[in-house]
Amino acid sequence: MTFVADPYSSLQFLELSHVWGHGVPSYPGQADVKMHRAVKHAEHGVLAWKCNTVLHTGTHINAPINMIQRGTDLAGIPAERFFGNGVVLDIPKGSYEVITARDLEAAAPGVRQGDIVVIVTGWHRRYSDSLEYFGESPGLGKDAAEWLVNKDCRMVAVDTQQIDHPLATSLGPHRGGPTMKRLADEYREATGLDPKKEHGEWNIAHKTLLGAGIPTIEQVGGDVDLLLGRRATFVATPWKLRNGDACPVRFVAMIDPTGNCRIDSGNE
């Protein structure tokens, strides 16, 4: 994949989303995306799909109301949150590892106040319906989420299946879980650690970010590898959904070949 350049501005565009559709990987315990042709070309000369889906599928955005009672819904998030300059941080992580504030501080280029931050661990390459992708992925620790809040981030995006470590979610022994019944035992065997001690707070990283009004994007993919360690301008296009906690999202990066993250003002 190469950058697609706009012929007028020379800005280069890059896809950061996985392809979405029937049967994409879905969280354990949740129904698959189901699609069928409600109207067909062969029958009427028109194509129209009917869809049944959980909104947390594929590359998707989460609004504060997802974790915060009476929090802002998708329709209430200001549009300017979905557009702005930021950085793609290259923070490789293995199975069950935690992304820490120290990792974020050490990553280059540095995060600036008000940035959109995209954290790439390498797990977008494992995107699949698999025990590994959903159960063994790394996740943000509480200190990392607090560090991002202190940076007043516009949005935070990750290439993993969730913001939090899977053992801090209902995939493990929290709330309605475990929806991956073998996960806690496999974690103990692989790491020698107690999941309740290491990840005792439920969705703490996600609640920290959403509680600060910062929308999150999970399961970033596409050609994000081409942006590792680079600054870019980002745009996300979620639905304007009343009471919406989440929805699939198209996430795109723009690179200015001058290196200035320039967007023309439109003034003559």
Distance between the termini: 35 Å
Structural class of the secondary structure composition?
A: alpha/beta
Q: Looking across the biggest beta sheet, what order are the strands in?
A: 1-2-14-12-6-8-10-11-5-13
Unreliable spans are none
State the helical fraction: 10-25%
Radius of gyration: 19 Å
Mean pLDDT: 94
Strand fraction: 15-25%
| CATH homology superfamily | Putative cyclase
Order of helices and strands: EEEHEEEEHEHEHEHHHEEEE
CATH class: Alpha Beta
Which geometry do the CA atoms define?
globular
Q: Give a count of the beta strands, DSSP E runs of length 2 or more.
A: 14
Number of domains: 1
Question: Major beta sheet, specifics?
Answer: 10 strands, mixed
Structure, described:
This protein has 268 residues and is α/β, with parallel strands linked by helices. The protein has a single domain, classed as Glucose Oxidase, domain 1 (3-Layer(bba) Sandwich). The chain contains seven helices and 14 strands. The strands form three sheets. Strands 1-2-14-12-6-8-10-11-5-13 form a ten-stranded mixed beta sheet, with helices on one face. A two-stranded antiparallel sheet has the order 3-4. Strands 7-9 form a two-stranded parallel sheet. A hairpin with a 6-residue loop joins β1 and β2. α4 runs parallel beside α7. The radius of gyration is 19 Å and the shape is globular. The protein starts with a strand and ends in a 13-residue tail after the last strand. The mean pLDDT is 94.
